[in-house]
Automatic annotation (TrEMBL):
This is Tryptophan halogenase. PANTHER family: FAD-BINDING PROTEIN (PTHR43747), FLAVIN-DEPENDENT TRYPTOPHAN HALOGENASE (PTHR43747:SF4). One of its GO terms (molecular function) is monooxygenase activity. L-tryptophan binds at E346. The keyword Iron does not apply. The keyword Electron transport does not apply. It comes from Croceicoccus marinus. SUPFAM superfamilies: FAD/NAD(P)-binding domain.
């Protein structure tokens, strides 16, 4: 039986290096017995260089691969991310918006709070069930300098500099995890008679053999598309955005506040992301070129940024929404942009990279014979996850009450809404997405709480009466009191976001 000992990753962006780190860390004990992870990266093709919003999962991923969180903050210009605020998505009014925070609603495991919250009407759902929106409003960090690395007083993820992150991971993977790094252009993919990839050849004449090849070549999809001919499944009929304009915005003053949440502001035919790092903001406009021309979209972006936009060069990135029909074929598996891309509305790409890398590392086939079984399982789970992300992103568009442009009107047309999502929206008229339903299965990407934050943040009404049982009402009131007390405690005790980032640049956090 052919053993699977030699893993070759092609591509050195966030996908390539995270996957290399996760596999190498998990299989470190096998290295003396000939197990190897090689990453081949072109010195000529730059990484995509965007992708700066993440999920809390990145904390456990970085921790598992042995990264110091303090080093990560310092070397990747990282900041804390406590969720996203969606402005102008519901009615388009300038002062309208809601949070999708990263903390679960208080008491979530004990009680379905939605009926009790709905009883009270006008209050913001987020503020009724979690302190995190108010923490963000006040520009506070989710922890103090005394909180150990990777732990938080409020849940958090990161905003990071994508270019610096890849370099940071390169160093860590090579020096600490023994990943072999080859800097060369892959110019040929050599296939065996059974269709498997036997080796990749580089422009400088190297032939790199492997048992399993991981395609992390970004939009190029060198192995999965060009060699293995796996088709791409478009979803532009559901998610219309097909172009991004990206720009890096310096702070007017180095002490300007750094937002600890992603700000997503809806526009006439798309939306603008705004991500705060300690040294600059990353801002971009994702839009549908069938609904608005690029000049208009750029004007909206510059208007959003204001006078600081005057001298900035805007980078244009065409995007293709969709994913591979299968992700693992033969001995090739695609991760990252090579596997697919969806507009970054909920920053769901890096988390999918983490989930894919984890699954590959955990299920790494011991030999070629079982690889097809594992590939089938990987494909089923991964296709399911892409489908659920498409549904969740579309939910933001489906709930809009905006009718001011064709873009918003088209987005609520039934034929653009996936059947499964339509069904769920029917169901949610009478019951709420909650803990003990399908959204909390292992292969789910977004938990039930995320659906609640978006649905009720956008004013959806679920016609479910609160439980009659007095004990339940009492519990609901207690949970509310707990949330109020926790909110007061955190607002009084958490430092300003920028202050904590400055402190981390000078004092190491306590290692876990
Ligand atoms: P890339 O970064 O493109 O890397 C490809 C690698 O392949 C490079 O190292 C290149 O040198 C190498 N390569 C290519 N050809 C060859 C060859 N012939 N030989 C050898 N090597 C080769 N994700 C999030 O999670 N959050 C976000 O907020 C977010 N925002 C985004 C905004 C935009 C506008 C876009 C387009 C994407 C965004 N993403 C986001 C997605 C995120 O950027 C990517 O998922 C992530 O950066 C991974 O990219 P990658 O490593 O797959 O590809």
């Amino acid at each position: 039986m052919d053993k699977v000992d030699s893993i070759v990753i092609v591509g050195g962006g966030t996908a390539g290096w995270l996957t290399a780190g996760v596999i190498a860390a998990r299989h470190q004990g096998r290295r003396p017995h000939g197990f190897s992870v090689t990453l081949v990266e072109s010195p000529n093709v730059p990484i995509i260089g965007v992708g700066e919003g993440t999920w809390p999962t990145l904390r456990s991923t970085l921790r598992k691969i042995g990264v110091s969180e303090t080093d990560f903050f310092r070397e990747c210009d990282a900041a804390f991310k406590q969720g996203a605020r969606f402005n102008r998505w519901t009615t388009g009014e300038a002062d309208e918006g809601y949070y999708h925070p990263l903390m679960l609603p208080q008491g979530f495991a004990r009680l379905n709070l939605v009926p009790h919250w709905l009883e009270n009407g006008d209050e913001s759902f987020c503020d009724a069930v979690t302190p995190q929106g108010r923490i963000c409003d006040q520009g506070l960090a989710p922890k103090t300098i005394a909180t150990p690395e990777y732990e938080g007083l409020a849940n958090y993820a990161y905003h990071l500099d994508a270019g610096k992150f890849s370099k940071f991971l390169t160093k860590h993977c090579v020096e600490k995890l023994g990943v072999r790094h080859v800097l060369a252009d892959v110019s040929e993919v050599v296939q065996a008679p059974n269709g498997d990839v036997a080796c990749v050849k580089t422009a400088d004449g190297q032939a790199i053999d492997g048992d399993l090849f991981i395609d992390c070549t970004g939009f190029k999809a060198l192995l999965i598309e060009e060699a293995m001919k796996v088709p791409f499944r478009d979803c532009n009929d559901v998610l219309f955005c097909d172009t991004a304009l990206a720009v890096q915005v310096p702070y007017a003053d180095p002490s300007d506040p750094v937002a600890s949440h992603t700000i997503s502001t809806a526009q006439s035919a798309g939306w603008i992301w705004d991500i705060g790092l300690p040294t600059r903001r990353g801002v971009g406009h994702v839009f549908s070129s069938s609904h608005v021309d690029a000049d208009h979209a750029e004007r909206e972006l510059r208007d959003y940024i204001g006078p600081a936009a005057r001298d900035l060069t805007v980078r244009r990135i065409p995007i293709r929404s969709g994913h591979r029909e299968t992700f693992w074929k033969g001995n090739v598996v695609a991760v990252g942009l090579a596997a697919g891309f969806l507009e970054p509305l909920e920053a769901s790409a890096i988390v999918l990279i983490e989930l894919s890398a984890k699954m590959i590392a955990e299920q790494l086939p011991p030999n070629r014979d079982v690889m097809d079984v594992i590939a089938r399982r990987f494909n089923d789970t991964t296709a399911y996850r892409w489908g659920r992300i498409i549904d969740f992103l579309k939910l933001h568009y489906t709930l809009t009450k905006r009718t001011d442009t064709d873009f918003w009107r088209d987005n609520t047309r039934a034929e653009t809404i996936p059947d499964r999502l339509q069904g769920l929206m029917e169901l949610w008229k009478y019951q709420t997405p909650w803990l003990h339903d399908e959204f909390d299965r292992a292969e789910e990407v977004f938990p039930a709480a995320s659906y609640q934050y978006v649905l009720y943040g956008m004013g959806y009404r679920t016609d479910v009466p609160p439980g009659d049982v007095a004990a339940e009402r009492e519990l609901a009131q207690r949970v509310r009191r707990e949330n109020d007390a926790l909110t007061a405690r955190l607002l009084a005790g958490l430092p300003g976001h920028r202050d904590l980032l400055s402190k981390i640049s000078q004092h190491a956090m306590m290692p876990v």
